[in-house]
Amino acid sequence: MEHKVEEGKKALEGLDAERKVINAMIDAALNTPSVIPTIQFRSRARTRGKSLLTDKTTPEDDLKAAAVREEIGRDALGPESTSLA
Predict the structure, then answer these.
(1) Average pLDDT of the segment spanning 45-74
(2) How far is it, in rounded angstroms, from Cα 70 to Cα 82?
(3) Which residues of 27-58 are buried (b: 16+ CB within 10 A; e: fewer)?
(4) What is d(CA 55, CA 61) in angstroms, rounded to the nearest whole number?
(5) What's the pLDDT score for residue 24?
């Protein structure tokens, strides 16, 4: 009976040593410095265009925008719409 108790104690000592090694590995992994990326946040107004930030449009800008809208409208309707205009 005492022999089995001694074997159990040796087994526990072996398991305890393995546990200490594993815990040391975990501590080393947790204590290593990690790289956290820096994220720059932008306001939504900047992503929607500068025209929302400033109301400094010139009459030429308005004419260009109207021409582009008209051209897009013609393209959307197809080639037969140009003969009507």
Answers:
(1) 71
(2) 11
(3) eeeeeeeeeeeeeeeeeeeeeeeeeeeeeeee
(4) 12
(5) 97
